[in-house]
Please model this.
Amino acid sequence: MATAELEDILERHRRDPLQLLQILIELQAREGWLAPDTLSALAVALGMPRARVESTASFYSFLHTRPAGEYRILFSDNITDRMLGNMALMQALCDKLWLQPGKVSEDGLVSVATTSCTGMCDQGPALLANGRTVTRLTPERIDEMAHLIRRRVPVGDWPPEWFHVEDNIRRRDVLLDHGLAPGQALAVALDRGAMSILGEIERSALRGRGGAGFGSDIKWRSCRDAWGDAHYVICNADEGEPGTFKDRVLLSSYFDLVVDGMCIAGMAIGANKGFIYLRGEYRYLLDRLETRLAQRREQGLLGRNILGRGFTFDIEIHLGAGAYICGEESALIESLEGKPGKPRIRPPFPVTNGYRGQPTTVNNVETLALAALIAVRGGEWFRAIGTPASTGTKLLSVSGDVERPGIYEFPFGVSVAEVLEAAGARDTQAVTSAGAAGHCLAADEFGRRIAFEDVATGGSIMVFDASRDMFEVARNFAHFFAHESCGFCTPCRVGTAVNARLLDKLAADHGSPYDLDEIVKMHRLMQGASHCGLGNTATIAIDDMLAKFRPAFERRLHSPEYEPAFDLDAALSQARRMTGRDDPGAHLGDNRGALAEERAHAHGRATTTGVQGAPASAEPVSAKDLQP
Amino acid sequence: MMRIETTDASAGGAPHKLKVATVSLAGCFGCHMSFLDIDERLLPLLELVEFDRSPITDIKHCGPCDIGLIEGGVCNAENVHVLREFRANCKVLVALGACAVNGGLPAQRNHLELADILQEVYRTGHGLAEGSRIPDDPELPLPLNQVHPVHEVVRIDYFLPGCPPSGDAIWAFLTQLIEGKDPNLGPGLLHYD
Amino acid sequence: MNDSFLLDGEDIPFTPGQTVMQAAAAAGKYIPHLCWHPDFAAHGSCKLCTVKIGGRFATSCTVRAAAGQEVENRTDELDAKRRTLLQLLFVEGNHFCPSCEKSGDCALQATAYELGMLTPHFDHFYPDRPVDASHPDVLLEFNRCILCELCVRASRDVDGKNVFALAGRGTRSHLVVNSDTGRLADTDFAATDRAAAVCPVGVILKKRVGFAVPIGQRTYDRQPISAGLRADDKAGAGFGEAG
Model:
């Protein structure tokens, strides 16, 4: 890259090492990958160790430290994309481009691979083409795409309708029908003052919408009370939970309310600076959001002396780069500081030691929008909606086997069955109530209610009808977590990988009852021993599915005997090729048949030789070994 | 836990000798040598056990046994067949030594492609005779792409690590197993090296 | 102040600000651990030191001691969890003790002895990891890395050099060194660095001294790791004599 271009990027980021991730994202966008020389130059320019530049560059899925092609196509691989046929489409594209998934074409033109859920489950199957979202894929679009790539047509010149993202709002309640003008909530809040707003938030009993449900007033108050040189507000728009896309809609069509909420949070905690951490998958929103922020600055709704009341608060948007873990608030802050998104040791919590070590409140997009609404309508009004422990409404992202996938705003306390009814679900077998990281409900639980005290959710509701194989759902989730584990702690890093291998083993027809026990064992280990919420929740849905849909797993067990995870016959393939042999001795069958045959032999020998020892047990035992 | 029963109803309740089989798969026989290092304790051991298939007896196939001791990992097709023969015939199967437990030294080829190894060893390596080729005699077992510890191929009941496990460790392990206990190596007997 | 908490029923005194691990170590009580080291800031990644406090799991190297708390440490439940964590570490890397010159001085191996780990249990990953022998005095054997980041901390916080960092994500996490070539020889690393003596396993190995002390007579051959002696204290001194 030309030195001038690099200098330009560095200048815009004030040569601040904390901007490293943002700089890398810009370089990646220009160059298509991050060459070793680029990393070295950056290390020198930023005055930081090269190894740390490499740490960040190699952590995020959307950054490539090896050439990945002029065209980088990433198919969203959530289970909902799978149900809509993404795998066949990906294979079709690969066939047309003469390449294998995960590999760069020999001419360096294109690579095709999968990525975690891109948040387009209501209009999938979806993909990212050089970071730009393409929705509603069809075989025709794939055909055309292959043509465009071969003819080297820039992604920006592809048919504009491919990039169209619908809101798909299906049910509106107080939030989606808020009726407020931009800045209206902020003006009310400035009139009332910080303490009054904190009081309203407390009266509203607002709880965090990301899923954990922490009391917003407690978070804001402890942040306000914490000593620091500066306080920060962070809007967590790293909406990575598979199956959720409600923040996408809030950012797309309710952005002013979100920004009002951030400004109000800033006023309440005594901050002058806020960040929106926008997941890389929503890069397509960035320019529009930046434009709107600029307009608000001109309108006196952001920046210095907001609405002439002497309150200063500005917002910077940071992009993520493909890392689910950054939804965890301390990992998000690490990422915001330009580092790999690995969760910090807590305590101390971000409210006292957050961005740059300063008091920081990290709130979900939806929480901030609701805070703006509460500032206008009052805490009492809000608390009258929902249930006593879960006040207000909740945005649900509903996808999967429903007639009308999209956003549903319901008061807390709505039953799962009511949501299914509204979305037009039929013959429903299962519902995942909080994405890949929460419980999976079977039909007899659909009477349960969406609320922190019953079915807690960040809003991802995926629906599976009776035709779906819940084993494949579990396998998709297991691979998701293995891909997204940050690798910091042992149980999550290796445990998620072991889990994915176990489910692959079952999928390859090598499973035995022993392997099902192993899945449960990993669940027990990772719960409690993991460093953060990712590891602690990574096995919940899988464990539920194994307990509630066990036949789907048992169907995969073809042998009561312990079988190797690898294919023994395939393990002789290289030797066969190199020797040219194909005789019977050059092949191996599975344990089940071989052991039965051996036992038959053994009985024969035992009777003819009259050995006194007890014959070997004919009852197979599935356990691989007995050490606890 | 799988335990050994020291009396057998079919023999009228009288104590009988336990049958023990041993084999070295992808191992160096070091664990067997260590077994012999129990020295004079072999004599009381022979009061309690008799050997079936083993390098000690030269019996070629395993009959029904109480205990099978497997030295070495699984590196070729024959290893797989022998391991299955032991699994089918032995009530208790023991992984004996480092190679059986985690593949050991032979498994350090696992990061290489088998095809590359065969090519270099038989075709392109230094000092090979003119016209050297990769052996293809059907009598020879084909190597697996990777070497595996025995527990990755069949169910294993007990593990006795060490390279080799010491004579004392083997003695302690076997005497406890023969007494019908779960073997428990005391301090100092558990070693991986 | 005379604060104390209970560790497996025993009274352990602590000073305010100490973690459970620090207080236990000061009292001569062993809580299994790999990434914790008394000289460095706690890291909390290996999770071997997981204990139960008031029935909840906690990482003892990062959780502050509090008066009156009841801490479970060497229970069957926790030791079983730790054994599983060790097994995961063993299958994730390439740990072949018989051919490792750190054998007997290795904290991973010694902890596995302490917890009676007889088998790695899981299927091995057998990763393909390189070796870096470029440096004249030190060898890097990445096959044995358990990602504890002790070398990262030692080089950054004591040596002031930042020679090491972790790169990658998930099971692709790996140790990298701070040079354009990725080779240790092209860094300012020296065998006298603290980071050269802190590796609990056999990754960072000083050349030409590997077998100065014979196998069988090493730190954890002579006493279990729970007795409290750290191999890296001795290894540092030993190199000074041999170097």
Q: What stands out?
A: Chain B has six helices and seven strands. The CA atoms of residues 32 and 72 of chain B lie 10 Å apart.
